[in-house]
Structure formats: structure tokens, C-alpha cells
TrEMBL record:
The lineage of its organism: Eukaryota, Viridiplantae, Streptophyta, Embryophyta, Tracheophyta. This is beta-ketoacyl-[acyl-carrier-protein] synthase I. It comes from Trapa incisa. It holds the Pfam family Ketoacyl-synt_C. Residues 1-28 form the signal peptide. Keywords: Acyltransferase, Fatty acid biosynthesis, Fatty acid metabolism, Lipid biosynthesis, Lipid metabolism, Signal, Transferase. Belongs to the thiolase-like superfamily. Beta-ketoacyl-ACP synthases family. GO terms for molecular function: 3-oxoacyl-[acyl-carrier-protein] synthase activity. GO terms for biological process: fatty acid biosynthetic process.
Amino acid sequence: MAASSVASPLCTWLVAACMSASFQDSHSMSPPDSSLSPSKWLSRRLRRKILTQCGGGSSSNRFSSLSRSSFQGLVSSYLGYLEPCSEYYSSKGLTSLGFFGDNGFTSLFGSRTLRTNRRQRMLNRVAHSGEAMAVTLEPAQEISTKKKPFTKQRRVVVTGMGVVTPLGHDPDVFYDNLLDGVSGISKIETFDCDQFPTRIAGEIKSFSTDGWVAPKLAKRMDKFMLYMLTAGKKALADGGITEDVMGVLDKTRCGVLIGSAMGGMKVFNDAIEALRISYKKMNPFCVPFATTNMGSAMLAMDLGWMGPNYSISTACATSNFCILNAANHIIRGEADVMLCGGSDAVIIPIGLGGFVACRALSQSNDDPTKASRPWDTDRDGFVMGEGAGVLLLEELEHAKKRGANIYAEFLGGSFTCDAYHMTEPHPDGAGVILCIEKALAQSGVSRKDVNYINAHATSTPAGDLKEYQALIHCFGQNSELRVNSTKSMIGHLLGASGAVEAVSVVQAIRTGWVHPNINLENPDAGVDTNVLVGPKKEKLKVKVGLSNSFGFGGHNSSILFAPYN
């Protein structure tokens, strides 16, 4: 409706302006006399305004091509006359004159290019030659040669860590237990699991939210959210983000990206049980507290952080995806500080039953501490775990300015997909190899510089060996390479595993010690034990540490850390 209302007076104006062009030079722009109607006098004034703003010249020369019988030719030639001048490119073109709205002629005709016959096109090219054509080409030339200015890539460092694990809720306590070869796997006590063929897990026996989560929320939230909020706030405290520091942070440049593989399974399961009685018995928070994004959202609300905030769920690769994406937000200049990692809590009947149905779990119930045994010939599946891991990532100059203690530098990483099977790894490890090679290329790291790898190694028959072969393919020439698996002591924390293992890598960089592989008593055929860390901790000056995480669906992820220099 608006276009038609504008088009009618516009066409009238165009015709009037063009018809008067041939004798424009002999008439002044004085007030109308008796020989001119008000509409004709107004059309001349409008045309003169355009000529003035576009650096016009002799109108008789410019409109010589208007002596065609076709109205289409008239409009085309007139639009050709208006084809970009310097004033057009330094403003919004015709829209700057205030006559046509934001879309100018495009809103009326759909395009500035009108169909003309061959003869008209030839005549138009002649009419548009010379100065007018040169002006038209000049801006296009400028655009094609303009280069993006070089900007130095922003560096990302780790300035804080927080964990909630079966081996402790402090990064130092957790890592000391790993170095000592302590197992956090035991019989499940949260519920009666005698009916299940698997009755063991890396279960958190004691956990308190006091001082970290408001009591009212603590009663309503799923454990995966409680673990996440607690680990996130502990990472802030570990990073020296006190109330005073928080007061001066630009909160629009602080974000949270903490994911979960399974989300609030307990809250949702409880809602289903309540629904069996009546919908009125359902927890009104069952939907928001079951979603994987709500943990990041609640933490941001608590902190008032308004930067990037979301979650990623890629099964057991979740944490690595979150860490790399959080770092990318900092590198791209979208944030200065990011809390990132993962959290999961699925040691409940439906969680245990689901993985039992997948035939993925170990059934070594008689000796829980021996159940998780990556690369050992007696392994019979992974052991479920629970918990959370959070890293505080920060832009280097931002961290230095506030005097932060820098633990390590985040170098980069990559993702790939096997595109092969829901739960089985690709037979030749193509996706894992590609992921590692892309991570090295993206980070600018040489293969020979990677001398420590915290492997995904879940203690499954197929997965451990395929990953080992991929690692040897990529780093087999590195005589200094040491490989271990944190899961041998805490089990598989699902979406939280990558973050907890990233903490292990950072701790190895800080302390100069790598933790042992426990339960590796009968190495699988083809596995070189000279590459794997033995049953005791080992001294190692880490040059570059790599952490792998893979998930159901064929999701592969690799991230790299190094000492900050």
C-alpha cells in the first residue's frame, strides 16, 4: 500500500522533471510566473536539488538519451543518470534526499536494473560514458582493493579451576588423590541397585552447597545444576575474582558456557512419577530445571554476567566443545572472561538402567576399585561417574592487568564427527586422527611438542584401542610422549569428563607430575607400555598437553594447553 502511494507521485515527478530537462538551462529557479503551473515549477526545484547534491552538470547533455519513445527507456535513462556518484556512496544514495524512504528505488522497482532492448542498451552505454561512468566504477575499485587490517590474535589463559568429583571438591585435593593412585569408584549407595547387573559407580558420597547455592534453590535444583553452580563459583574464588574484583569487571564481557550431556534427569524422572498421581503434584520447575542450558543461565543470573551464555550437549564430548567455544568468544573479542566446562549427575535408577541396556557398563561389582581399567585385556566396560569441572578462561592482557595467577595457556583445539555409528568408534580411527591434526594446525603446534596426552580411554573394549592407534599414528615418533587416563580412578563423568580431565592437564603443567594409570595389569596386545604412564606417578615437564573427549554420535574433540611463557 505504501509503495503504490509513493509510486504514483514519483512517476509524475519523473516525467515532469525529465520533460523539462531540455530547456532547463534557459530558465531560472525563481518563483513561478504565470506561464508555469505550480506542479511544473516544483518538479524543476526537486530536479535541481538532486543535480546539486550529485555534482550535476549540464542537464541537456546528461538527458540527451531521453529522446526515446518508450517510457521504459525514459525511466532507465533517468535512473542511469542517477547511477552512483560520490555523494551516493558517501551517504545512503537517493535515500539521503529524504524522498524515497530507506529502500530508495529498490522498494518501488525491485531492482535498479531495468530490461531494455539491444539498441537502447547501446545508446545508454554511450550516454553513461565519460565522467559519469568513471565515477560509477571508482567506488567498486576501492572496495575490491580494500584489505582487512591485521590484528594480533588475543591469547587465552587459565586463571581459575573448580571441581566436584568422587576424589574431592578442590583442584589440589583432587589432583593429589590422582597422583597417589586413589580410586573413587565404590558401591552405589544413593538407591537400592541390587536388581541391576551393575552396582558400582564413581559416586560422590558427601557434597554440600553451603555458601555456594541459596538453600531454597538447593532444595529444588537437580544435582547436575548444584554441581555446576558450586564448581563454577569455586573456579571464580580460585581465580581471585573477589567481590571487589567483581565490582569493577565489565559484566557485559563476562560469559558462562557450561554444558551437560544428560541434563536434569532426576528432576524430570520425579515429574513423571508425580504425573502418575496427578499433574497437580508435578514440580513447577521440572521443565526449566531439566534443560541442559539452565545451569549456565542460573549461574549468570547469580553473577550478573551478561556476556555469551548458553550450553552445548555433545554427549561425553560436551565439556571440550564448551571450553573451545568459550575460548573462541575471547579470541574474537566478544568476551574477556568465560566460565566453561561441564556437569552431569545421572547415578539414578533410570540413568543406570539406560546404560545397562546399552551393554556399556562394567559388571565387576566384586572389586569396584579394579573395575575401570583402560587398555587392560580384562576391561569389560566403563564405570559411570558424576560431578562437574569448570575452568576460568581469561584474555591474557585482562588477566595481567588485574594481577591474576596464570596456571596455563589455552592454545586451541578442534572438533570432528566420525559419521559412522551412534556408539561405536570408526574402525580406522579416521575421525579421531582428523580431529587431532586439525587441533594441531589450528593451534600452530608441532607434533613433536606434544609430550603429554590425557586420553578419553573409557575402559571399553573397542574405544580404548582405536584411540591408542590414532595417538600412535599422530605422535608415534615422539619418544617423550606419555599417555594416561583419569577415568581409571574416577570413572566416566559423561558430559563433565572433559572439563575434569582438562583440570588434570593444567595441574600436570603446574606441578610437573602426571598421574598413573591404575589397573593396567595386562596391557592389550599391540599396546606399547613405554608410551603409557605406569602404576606410579611420573615426573614430566609438559611442553604441550592434549586432552581428548569423544561422545556417542561420533563427536570427537581435542584441546591443547601449554605452560604460559
